[in-house]
Structures are given as C-alpha cells and as structure tokens.
C-alpha cells in the first residue's frame, strides 16, 4: 500500500486549501488510511516540504499530494524533481486549477481524493514536464511556461488583493481577465525570437510566447488545443502584431480554443525551445512568476513525473 504525504497550502483559493483539507482529513480518518500532512507557511515552502516528505518515504512507495492550486502543484513538482521515485498527486483547492483540468483529475476535491485512494494499488502513470532554464536555474513546469504579456498578467494577478475578493465571490478565474484589461493599455510589444529544435522564428512585435505541456492555462483558457502531456513534446503559441482591440477579440476566442485561426497566432511543436528578446521580459512557470530575462531555454522532459491519479500517460 502507498503511504500518503499531503502538502497543504491553507492559503490557496483564498482559504479553500484549509477547508478542503479538513474534509479530506475526515475522509482519510474514517477510512483508516495512514497519512502525514504538512502545511505551507510561506511561498516556496511546498518545495521544501515535498522534499522532506519524499525523504521520509525512503524505500516505501510514497505518494506526495499537493492540496492547493496550480502554484502548489508547481512547487511540489519541483520539490520532487525530475525522475522522482515518489508518485505525485493533486487535490484541487485553488482558483485556476488548470492542472486538474488538463490531466483529467476531478474538479471536486473529494472526488479527486477518492480517485487517488481508489487506485492506490496501481502503478502511477508517467507524464511529461517542461524544464525552464532561466539565469542558470532550472524550473520544472507541468502546465505551461510563458514570456511576455501573459507572465506580466500572472504576476499582477498573484499580487492583486482583488484575487481574494474575486475568490470570495467564487469568481476567482475572472481576476486574470480583469488584470489583462487593466494592463493592456500600457503594455508595449517586443521583438522576440523563438528557436525550436534549431529552427529560428522571428517576431518583430510579440505580445507573448507560451510553451504548453497540456491545453489549459489562466483558469480554463484553451491556449494550446493540441498539447498532450504524453507526446514527448511541448506546444508553443506565439501571439504577435495584433492591435490592442484585436487582442481582446483573440483573447475571448481562447476560451473556446478558436484563437488558432487568427493569422497573428502561430503554433509550433518541439522538444528544445529558446526564447530570446532584446530587452528583459517577464517570465512565468505554471502561473508562478519567475522573473525577468532576455533568454529562456526550455526542454521537454518526457516521463518526468509519476502521476498518482493514473492519468494520462503510460504505466511506469
Ligand atoms: N502559507 C502561505 N502564505 C502565503 N502564501 C503561500 C503560503 N503557502 C503557499 N503560498 C503561495 O501561495 C501561492 C498561490 O498558491 P496556489 O497557486 O496553489 O493557489 P491559487 O493561486 O489560489 O490557485 P491557482 O494557481 O490555481 O489560481 C503560491 O505562490 C504559493 O507559493
């Protein structure tokens, strides 16, 4: 039987993390399932806690479960590291929850826990991740990484006090829309070069470049409709040249994945991606702000994580 280690972000989803954990704890106790729980106390803490959990599990089949949003999943993934022996589980309790959406994990937290417990005797399935190297530091991502306007929107949304207010009104996803509209007026497009498996693509005035492992980002937008987390490749979306008014039109169409038919939207697939700009631009990984840089190097890492929910890849 697997041993479960839960890494709970009580602040995720404006307190939903704590509430979800209370229900999960009750269910685990009722079913007499052995587990240990750790609570994050600050940003980045889930990286340390998941390493601690994986260390404690030495020799046993462990499942380290992130309870929170995409940021918590991102931190646990990075704590476990590429090719970790521990399984990686997720109970959604955030505002965006693109990870559960893209990986077939139930949106209802108790259903996600039920699925995790129900398949505990099975081997976890493997899934691809991306690895972003920025200024010499590697960041694994499971959903997407991006450079430019979308990274700025992630940063501002995470910093915004309005995120809490929108969450309280169960409108958490709309914070990205609000920030996008607000930042659009002052954002300047930049020249951007993307090199994909040795092929160079230059854009004179790019809004952003996003590299996706699965279709969803920003709380349900289908940015990369053809991305598959088990195909060994990453999908690249570059949006350039659009006027601000047309960007809004394209933005609305992303919710249906229809933006790909606009000539200013370019889609590529590849394994090794280099994004270069003349002046530093904002970078995110899984919606977590990483910093500013002129160059970001990204690689597909096939089978990097072992998904304890058993979806979507091959058995390990
Ligand atoms: N105890 C804590 N206090 C404050 N921030 C925390 C704490 N623990 C973790 N964090 C930070 O909270 C941030 C948000 O977490 P997370 O992304 O999981 O939730 P969310 O933003 O509500 O969901 P989503 O990313 O799905 O929209 C992360 O950047 C994480 O580092």
Structure description:
With 316 residues, this protein is an alpha+beta fold. The chain folds into 2 domains: 3-123, Probable inorganic polyphosphate/atp-NAD kinase, domain 1 (Rossmann fold, 3-Layer(aba) Sandwich); 133-302, Sandwich (Tumour Suppressor Smad4), CATH 2.60.200. The protein has helices at residues 16-30, 45-56, 70-80, 98-102, 109-118, 149-159, 162-168, 174-184, 244-254, and strands spanning 3-8, 35-39, 62-68, 87-92, 125-134, 137-141, 144-148, 190-196, 199-212, 216-217, 221-222, 234-240, 265-270, 272-285, 288-307. A hairpin with a 2-residue loop joins strand 5 and strand 6 (137-141). The protein binds adenosine-5'-triphosphate (ATP). Adenosine-5'-triphosphate binds next to helix 3.
């Amino acid at each position: 039987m697997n041993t479960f280690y839960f890494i709970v972000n009580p602040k995720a989803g404006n307190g939903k993390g704590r509430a979800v954990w209370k229900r999960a704890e009750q269910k685990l106790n009722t079913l007499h399932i052995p587990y240990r729980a750790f609570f994050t106390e600050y940003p980045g803490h889930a990286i340390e806690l998941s390493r601690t959990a994986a260390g404690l599990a030495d020799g046993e089949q462990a499942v380290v479960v992130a309870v929170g949003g995409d940021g918590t999943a991102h931190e646990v993934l990075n704590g476990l590291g590429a090719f970790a022996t521990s399984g990686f589980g997720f109970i959604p309790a955030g505002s965006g929850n693109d990870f559960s959406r893209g990986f077939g994990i139930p949106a209802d937290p108790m259903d996600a826990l039920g699925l995790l417990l129900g398949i505990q005797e099975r081997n976890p399935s493997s899934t691809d991740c991306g690895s972003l190297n920025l200024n010499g530091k590697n960041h694994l991502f499971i959903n997407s990484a991006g450079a430019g306007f979308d990274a700025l929107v992630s940063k501002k949304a995470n910093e915004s006090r309005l995120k809490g207010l929108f969450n309280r009104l169960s409108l958490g996803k709309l914070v990205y829309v609000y920030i996008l509209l607000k930042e659009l007026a002052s954002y300047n497009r930049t020249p951007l070069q993307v090199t994909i498996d040795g092929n160079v693509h230059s854009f004179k005035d790019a809004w952003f470049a996003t590299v996706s492992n699965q279709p969803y980002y920003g709380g349900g937008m289908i940015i990369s409709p053809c991305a598959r987390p088990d195909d060994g490749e990453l999908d690249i979306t570059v949006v350039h040249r659009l006027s601000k008014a047309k960007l809004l039109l394209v933005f609305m169409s992303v919710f249906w994945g229809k933006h790909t038919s606009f000539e200013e939207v370019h889609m590529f697939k590849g394994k090794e991606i280099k994004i270069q700009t003349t002046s530093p631009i904002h970078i995110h990984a899984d919606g977590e702000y990483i910093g500013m840089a002129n160059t970001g190097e990204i690689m597909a890492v096939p089978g990097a994580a072992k998904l304890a929910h058993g979806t979507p890849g091959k058995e390990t």
